[in-house]
């Protein structure tokens, strides 16, 4: 059974304009999905629909349905859905509500009805998973942006959701912090089989981890598939083409000019290896 299904789903906030338009999509358990598209395309709204905040919290009008583990989100209360779907919002600081790190994770466990005797151990485990072990007594206000974000993630992970939805999780992080976060998310996906749905504008950051891309434009799902499928569509059709990483622009220009096909370039290193295989040996030696 798919982890998430969009079945001809359309949505409008309090005005008639559809923000999501007839989305049909199924997300496999254990997959790492990245939602991309121009500003205003509906990426955040898509995340909110999986978490149930659309329509439970925002109201508005819907057609079709979104299902999580086969159950329509409209048939589950948001706190019930939160057991399956952990959400990290774009403005994640609004999710932090307590004074100290351990209180923050405990709060989320208490909300899910976890027995008090199990909480201390679960807090430690969740903090360890995100690299914040030993910081239990720290004041939340004293943490860096990246640490705060990992604390939100720990609070979400503590309740063991099998789906994680993250909206631009790296937007407030420096390049090193963003790389650390995605490496952590890649680990959660690969080792623990957590299904990921992540909004990210910097496609190069997620290429090493993602196995599926979803391209939204004006509320419509324009293309889904591997990096190769979706980036080729964007490049060739000129849809949100400015977001195609420069390295992939080079890759596709070379493929077009030479008729040669490269494997996906998930990292610069992979590009270097493949390019050096097709260059004359003398050039590679002297480089
Ligand atoms: N609470 C709301 N009430 C009314 N309209 C909204 C609300 N939230 C978003 N919208 C509108 O819905 C459309 C899609 O917004 P959404 O935030 O989902 O897009 P996005 O692709 O995530 O954009 P961005 O990349 O800028 O975050 C936009 O036109 C936006 O103005």
From TrEMBL:
Location in the cell: Cell membrane
Domain ABC transporter residue range list: 4-243
SMART domains: AAA
Keywords linked to the UniProt accession: ATP-binding, Cell membrane, Membrane, Nucleotide-binding, Translocase, Transport
Name listed for the protein in its UniProt record: Abc transporter
Molecular function terms from GO: ATP binding; ATP hydrolysis activity; ATPase-coupled transmembrane transporter activity
Tree of life domain: Bacteria
Stored InterPro entries: AAA+_ATPase (IPR003593), ABC_transporter-like_ATP-bd (IPR003439), ABC_transporter-like_CS (IPR017871), ABC_transpr_CbiO/EcfA_su (IPR015856), ECF_ABC_transporter_ATP-bd (IPR050095), P-loop_NTPase (IPR027417)
Protein family according to the UniProt entry: Belongs to the ABC transporter superfamily.
């Amino acid at each position: 059974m798919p982890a998430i299904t969009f079945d001809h789903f359309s949505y409008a906030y309090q005005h008639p304009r559809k923000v999501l338009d007839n989305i049909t999509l199924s997300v496999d358990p254990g997959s790492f999905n990245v939602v991309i598209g121009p500003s205003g395309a509906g990426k955040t709204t898509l995340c909110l629909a999986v978490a149930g905040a659309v329509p439970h919290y925002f109201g508005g009008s819907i057609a079709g349905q979104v299902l999580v583990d086969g159950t329509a989100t409209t048939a589950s209360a948001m706190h019930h859905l939160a057991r399956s779907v952990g959400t990290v919002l774009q403005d994640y600081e609004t999710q932090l509500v307590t004074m100290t790190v351990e209180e923050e994770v405990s709060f989320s466990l208490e909300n899910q009805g976890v027995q008090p005797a199990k909480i201390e151990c679960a807090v430690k485990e969740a903090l360890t998973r995100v690299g914040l072990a030993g910081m239990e007594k720290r004041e939340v206000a004293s943490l860096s942006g990246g640490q705060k974000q990992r604390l939100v993630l720990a609070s979400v992970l503590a309740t063991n959701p099998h789906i994680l939805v993250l909206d631009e999780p790296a937007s407030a992080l420096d390049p090193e912090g963003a790389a650390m976060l995605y490496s952590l998310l890649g680990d959660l996906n690969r080792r623990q089989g957590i299904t990921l749905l992540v909004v990210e504008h910097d496609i190069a950051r997620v290429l090493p981890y993602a196995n599926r891309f979803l391209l939204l434009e004006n509320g419509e799902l324009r293309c889904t598939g591997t990096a190769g499928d979706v980036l080729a569509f964007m490049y060739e059709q000129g849809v949100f083409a400015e977001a195609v990483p420069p390295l992939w622009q080079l890759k596709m220009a070379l493929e077009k000019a030479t008729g040669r096909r490269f494997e996906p370039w998930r990292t610069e290193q992979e590009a270097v290896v493949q390019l050096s295989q097709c260059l004359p040996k003398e050039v590679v030696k002297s480089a």
